[in-house]
């Protein structure tokens, strides 16, 4: 198809002789001035920063298709690099779509152009692979799929070469076409920003080292956080957005650069962009729809939104935030409504401006915990109205109704927003005219919205790790993704060491079947720890507030290869397993990192709380154990005191039960005599018996009388073995 549809231009160029069978012709468009070295250097500085004192050791990637846009970009940067040796070394990536038989040959032609003396640029050809069910006749779907696979191939190639910036050759005409399409699709306001000159690479969500990840967090012993937070990612740079295509053509002609042109771009019914391109080429449009005017629209909208995002960033630094990255929840106190603008909010226009700032601020806060990558402003409107009701114009008849819905819980951006209906935990930040013992009007708890049945069944929320396979000799090795993005919040790496299948998914209510109930296990309550393998998970659950956070946690399950039965392995973000801490030896290995978040002007430790530590879980487990012991021993005491055997009553027995308390940080057991004097059989000279105190770990063996009394006989419980035994205690 290219042999008939793609023409290599500039037949008089020095590289035209190497045309691999492609035809050549002159471009006949209106001539414009070429881009000067000074023009390009100014545009380059706007999108890319480099060290102006030492030579850069990094490389800068270029996406080169062979068209006039990318070839002009390569030529301009080559010239800039020759004038300034401190610029990074360029490296080209050429995507071979492999849709047509001759596409590989064409990619080789582009690579040859880059290797020529004109450029001297090394390059790599990136062949794309396609699924068997792809329908190339469905042009719209094919175009979308091709864009996704193209960016993913470029992103992985940059990651593998440790390149963090990728230059592409989008120009002013592309920008105007994008704005026109947004207008036609009614994507107004922020949609009219169109393409940014610097932004994160699209279509690569979930690819570690490409999408907001890959850069290790600097070790810092002062940070008391559960696990690292991802950093890094690959950025797209567009230095040519201010130049129209005619100037790129003039640049290639001036520098004697050959390029290839795909005639399918001229088929006006092929894509929406092609249709708009045809209109610009064949019709005279009003000045308001000219390329320059539409580019100006995008610039003004970008500047307008940039003002609000910059101001919202300052407000974000003022927000009081406690983020728990183990569960992905946070508690936040938003700033007062009066702070949304640097001036008094008096007019309706002021309220609109304040709302725009609030949108940016709320989105910035929600990004800390949401599983989604982007939220529309319309979705956030509900939250803005609840946090800042002062921005609403309400009549008297609406005030009563609004007061009832203002602080109601709601779900937006896949985040469950709950008004913090408790006294503020930010006790060091009191505000005038607010009672600290009452709930603060601008404090909200944000957690991940619970998954519905459809989301739970989504394969993306059920990552399968097949049985471990020993590497075979001579088998090709490929780079494996070290971490996978799970639920848009956690980067988790799991290595399966078993011959069974491991599954990573969100813990559900039905998964409680893996935990025996107290009635099923009450005989084991007082037994050794091996009788309660679930004890640490149960303790960790009890520490989660609110309790429904457990239904947002990633859990690892093991599926038996023979029976298909599932067993719970553990929770990687809590680093707890069924019978201890960390991944179970011989079953799997895991490591966790939280998704990349922007800390603004603060450090991670200023926002992230320490979370639930092993020490906390062990202490809670002991507390749970004592509760079970106390319940069982109380039951024993009631059975003894109820006269279940008159023979025991007639004996020299003091009935009683054991009670667990915490004394100076050490857990001790006390046995308190209970009952009225008429129920107590006294021994010779004994006036009263109040407490017995356990010393050591003898399981009831070492008991000391706290009051100086004569010998008495007690029936006490051995808390370690769940048995009753007679014990004689004396002064």
From TrEMBL:
Task: Write out the GO MF terms.
Answer: ATP binding; tRNA(Ile)-lysidine synthase activity
Sorted keywords for this record are: ATP-binding, Ligase, Nucleotide-binding, tRNA processing
What EC class does the entry list? ligase
Q: Which reaction does it catalyse?
A: cytidine(34) in tRNA(Ile2) + L-lysine + ATP = lysidine(34) in tRNA(Ile2) + AMP + diphosphate + H(+)
Record bears the keyword Lyase? no
Task: Quote the InterPro entries the UniProt record gives.
Answer: Rossmann-like_a/b/a_fold, TilS/TtcA_N, tRNA_Ile_lys_synt, tRNA_Ile_lys_synt_N
Tell me one Pfam family matched here: ATP_bind_3
Give its E.C. classification number.
Answer: 6.3.4.19
Which GO biological process annotations does it have? tRNA processing
Domain (tRNA(Ile)-lysidine/2-thiocytidine synthase N-terminal) ranges: 60-278
Q: Disordered: where is this region?
A: 456-480
The entry's protein name is tRNA(Ile)-lysidine synthetase
Species of provenance: Decorospora gaudefroyi
- From which lineage does this chain's organism come? Eukaryota, Fungi, Dikarya, Ascomycota, Pezizomycotina
